[in-house]
Design brief:
With 323 residues, the chain is mostly helical. It contains 12 helices and 3 strands. Strands 1-2-3 form a 3-stranded antiparallel β-sheet. A hairpin with a 4-residue loop joins strand 1 and strand 2. Helix 9 packs antiparallel against helix 10.
């Protein structure tokens, strides 16, 4: 029987809208900022992608209706998108060694109707692992966040399960309210890593249909969690492309590839950029599409890049999430 791990406990959750504890520069703050951005810097020069090039600009020739549409688009772009977490249901599961409760976690985009109400299932030990991991890097920020304590008995009563559902819902909301935690690798991995490990395992095993199914279900969740740096979903998009290509869904593969290239247009040094260009040229050739522009981009990038061997897109994909 596992010993209880003691964490700081308070009477209620405290959610701060403006996180001020990082305002004082110190060596500790620097370490925390590095922990937050490590995921975004992984093998690439990543920065927030700007939509400025796609934003229309007002001019005197616009009609009143066009001006209204312009400002509607601007306001939509400026309005921050937040996520809400809900745990409406749960189920009791068993395996050969134990019995446990699986909590169904819904991740919903606030502010508008969300047609992609993505959900995952996690057990108490998953939440506990997340808490331990975050506590190592963000101990100060989490001082006033309560984690539900482990009980030795009564874990499967309806009262206890309902209490845990509310506690975990508030716990995730509290974590998300802290920007540095919201963008951390640990927080994002909690929601996506299990599915992606399974998907890439299927991809490496040649089970492209199953891998594609998992990746397509997980992608909307990744998009919600990585709005601060959209290029973080490029590996998944490229894995989807590889699956479509091997299943000879060339048109679907090309469509996904165009989306990935759009996210990398300002990141030509990204490790996926050249392999993606090569894959898109091959797809364009099969589909009878013009690929002169892609070829020019490829040659331009190869001149800038070290001449060491560049992996193919598939070779890169199978290396993701290798244990």
């Amino acid at each position: 029987m596992e010993a209880e791990q003691e964490y700081p406990v308070v009477d209620e959750f405290v959610v701060e809208n403006d996180f001020t504890k990082l305002s004082i520069a110190s060596d500790e703050d620097t370490r925390k900022r590095e922990a937050v951005t490590a995921f975004e810097r992984n093998d690439q020069e990543t920065s927030d992608l700007s939509d400025a090039d796609n934003t229309p600009s007002p001019n005197s020739s616009m009609t009143t209706k066009e001006h209204q549409e312009y400002w509607r688009k601007v306001n939509c772009q400026l309005k921050p998108v937040k996520l809400l977490f809900d745990i409406p249901s749960s189920r009791i599961a068993e395996d050969c060694f134990s019995k446990y409760v699986m909590y169904q976690v819904f991740i919903i985009k606030s502010g508008s109707f969300d047609c992609n109400k993505v959900f995952i299932e996690r057990r108490y030990s998953d939440f506990e692992r997340l808490h331990r991991s975050l506590w190592r890097d963000f101990k100060e920020e989490m001082e006033e966040i309560t984690f539900p304590k482990k009980r030795l008995t009564g874990n499967f009563t309806e009262e206890m399960i309902n209490e845990r559902k509310l506690a975990f819902r508030d716990y995730l909301g509290s974590l998300y309210s802290i920007k540095c935690i919201q963008r951390s690798k640990q927080f994002i991995d909690f929601f996506t890593r299990a599915q992606l490990v399974e998907a890439y395992g299927c991809l490496r095993g040649g089970q492209y249909t199953k891998a594609l199914e998992i990746l397509l279900k997980t992608l909307p969740l990744q998009e919600k969690l990585t709005q601060h740096s959209a290029s973080l979903i490029v590996p998944s998009l490229c894995a989807i492309l590889v699956c479509h290509k091997d299943l000879e869904n060339f048109l679907d593969a090309h469509e996904v590839g165009e989306k990935a290239l759009a996210l990398l247009q300002k990141h030509s040094r990204h490790k996926y950029y050249i392999p993606l260009l090569e894959a898109m040229i091959a797809l364009a050739y099969v589909l009878g599409k013009d690929f002169v522009f892609l070829q020019e981009k490829l040659e331009e990038s190869k001149v800038k890049k070290d001449q060491s061997k560049v992996l193919t897109l598939k070779e890169l994909a199978v290396k993701e999430y290798v244990r």
